[in-house]
Amino acid sequence: MARxxxxxxxxxxxxxxxxTYLTMGQEIDxxxxxxxxxxxxxxxxxxxSKAEPHIDNCLGCxxxxxxxxxxxxxxxxxxxYRAWSEPDRRRGVIDRIRRGILxxxxxxxxxxxxxxALGRMARPIRGILPGFLSGMLEMVPxxxxxxxxxxxxxxxxxxxxxxxxxxxxxxxxxxxxxAINRSAIRVLNRNGIEVVVPRGQACCGALALHxxxxxxxxxxxxxxLLAFPDDLDAVLxxxxxxxSGIHEYGLLFKGHPEESRAxxxxxxxxxxxxxxxxxxxxxxxxxVGENRIVAYHDACHLAHAQxxxxxxxxxxRSIPGLQVRDIPEADICCGSxxxxxxxxxxxxxxxGRRKARHLAGTRADVVVTGNIGCLMQLRRHLLESGTDLxxxxxxxxxxxxx
Length: 402
Fold this sequence. Notes:
Layout (H helix, E strand, L loop, with lengths): L1 H6 L11 H6 L6 H12 L5 H10 L5 H5 L7 H11 L7 H13 L3 H14 L8 H8 L15 E2 L7 E5 L4 H5 L2 H12 L2 E4 L9 H4 L4 H14 L6 E4 L2 H8 L1 H4 L6 H9 L1 E3 H8 L12 E6 L2 H4 L6 H8 L4 E4 L14 H4 L1 H17 L4 E4 L2 H13 L5 E4 H6 L3
Parallel strand pairs: 2-3, 2-4, 4-5, 6-7, 6-8, 8-9
Antiparallel strand pairs: 1-3
Helix pairs in contact: 3-4, 17-19, 21-22
């Protein structure tokens, strides 16, 4: 944390890329403002309670890292700071309830499915419920989730095997859009890649990690370290947030016995698009439509946290009939940010509406992104804006079965 603080020269290059500075207009809700607050707390000159609201406002999108000319590793500051400050934090009753609901449901597919069913039943009475519960119910999908889709442990490659990979199935994604994993497996198999889906895997831990619940994050991360075989060519993720979370395993386990294994696991984890480009992607045999225009949305934890921008675009452009367009303000977060749109619905809503306007302006036929949180956020705000625009995961277009 000290190294990240010392690297910041307060130049201000981060300000135009920070979603909360754009929406709130306050220096204290910018990256350099938060760095100053954290420095003051760590040096004993500021009560942590004075900094907490502004640290909480941060989406953790890491756009500031991309913009920073000094190489400030903001993620290596804000994530450990939240974990360091959490044990002594005095949370109100409502805050504790909301936090408990999120941490005990979202990372567990079976519980999450039940919570969605209960939420859909309660939506008609949300107007008489406390504000935080009403806000959470607003995020419940209007349609029931697709039927449960249990994956096999192994899917053989078609033809000569070029690689053998493990697939992180994800937690919320398994419930909200199981078709994404099915598309991923088909694309990988068609490209000569055997896919292993270990039974013992768990949530990546990103939700807990990024909200200061370090021990909860380590608990599920340990399951993944043990579940995935050592003889895999790579561990693949189809959700930007999951890939980013796993790449932080070295930081999560720093000083713990598992640190070396965690760093090795993180090093062999790839986003599916990166891996497909590395091995040489074979375009789908079926066309997806003449001159179909695709608006590609950069998920923050893909573009900023993992530095993955070109691989998804290159794969999409390799498919005949697709034109890929970028979106204005591509580096600005859509407002999903894990559980941020539940905890901070007003700011998340403003960012979502802003992104929806830009997407509508592209005049695209379909929006593509690499993260389930972004996908759900974009669908919601496009629908609310009256824009009839399909939103898919990148691998669903690569699968050419849409």
